[in-house]
Amino acid sequence: MSILAASVQWQSRAVLARHIRVHLRSWHTVTLPPVCEPLIMLLTFGLGLGSQMGALLWQDRSLNYLHYLAPGILAYTAFMSSFFQSLFAAFIRMHFQKSWEGQLTTQVRLEHVVWGEALWAATLATSYAVIVCLVLAAFGLAGQLTLHWAWLPATIPLLFLTALAFSAVGLFFTAILPSIDHMSLPFFLVILPVGFASSTYFPLPDVPVLREVSMLNPLHHLAEGLRWLLLTGRPTWHLGASAGLCLLLLVALIPLDMRLLRRRVFGDR
Question: Could you tell me the residue ranges of all domains in the chain?
Answer without folding.
Answer: 2-266
